[in-house]
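[step 3/7] inverse_fold.run input=structure_tokens len=243
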């Protein structure tokens, strides 16, 4: 079955929901991003390793997806421009010389990009669009929460649609004789699927009488586990920041 591969994701997400509420998932997202962006450059790799370890324990499926070859290639492409920063040469690859400073910055960029992938994948997989909208609307940002929630929740759907469409097109030989035409069909299919999904979410929200201009006083789910996660994450972040 095509959809059978989604069962581990649902199991991991259900396991995370069983222990954490919306506040806990949000705390983990903010802690993950703050740990790799606000600590000193010399601690970035250590912070990234700690963050990925904790996220892997809580959201194992999100970490496994981010460690696939295509996502690692994307991370490598994001870090590639930093390799060519000027400075004293450290590695020579034929006529190309890579500076020590460029290598260090590229490694930090790769570590941060990988953390962002895992953290966002974990958050969007565990928190639905209604809860994300409620978080922003409680802060007075009417409509922004719903728009951002739809965008974040479309990322996993867009990724799965792109992967399924690519494999279907390849198995049917759509990239052999006319590759440009096949790629055009691929892009049209992925974009139209994303637009249709966004339209379905908007229609469902309208059917429930949701309007962006009206603030919703939805309560924020908070459990004892959420409080412990927030306190532990804050303490670990302070250790990474000042140790």
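[step 3/7] decode complete -> sequence:
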């Amino acid at each position: 079955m095509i959809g059978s591969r989604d069962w581990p994701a649902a199991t991991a997400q259900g396991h995370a929901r069983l222990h954490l509420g919306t506040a806990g998932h949000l705390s983990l997202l903010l802690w993950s991003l703050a740990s790799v962006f606000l600590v000193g450059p010399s601690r970035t790799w250590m912070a990234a390793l700690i963050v990925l370890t904790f996220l892997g324990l809580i959201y194992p499926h999100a970490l496994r997806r981010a460690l696939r070859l295509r996502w690692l290639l994307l991370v490598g492409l994001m870090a590639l421009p930093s390799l060519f920063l000027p400075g004293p040469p450290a590695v020579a690859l034929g006529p190309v010389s890579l500076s020590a400073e460029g290598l260090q910055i590229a490694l930090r960029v790769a570590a941060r990009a990988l953390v962002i992938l895992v953290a966002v994948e974990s958050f969007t997989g565990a928190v639905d669009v209604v809860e994300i909208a409620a978080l922003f609307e409680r802060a007075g940002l009417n409509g922004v929460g719903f728009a951002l929630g739809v965008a974040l929740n479309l990322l996993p759907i867009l990724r799965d649609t792109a992967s399924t469409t690519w494999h279907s097109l390849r198995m049917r030989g759509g990239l052999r004789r006319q590759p440009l035409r096949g790629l055009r069909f691929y892009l049209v299919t992925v974009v139209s699927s994303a637009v249709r999904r966004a339209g379905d979410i908007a229609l469902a929200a309208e059917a429930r009488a949701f309007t962006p201009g009206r603030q919703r006083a939805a309560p924020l789910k908070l459990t004892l586990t959420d409080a412990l996660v927030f306190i532990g994450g804050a303490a670990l972040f302070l250790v990474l920041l000042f140790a």
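[step 4/7] annotate
The radius of gyration is 21 Å.
Residues 169 and 202 are 29 Å apart (CA to CA).
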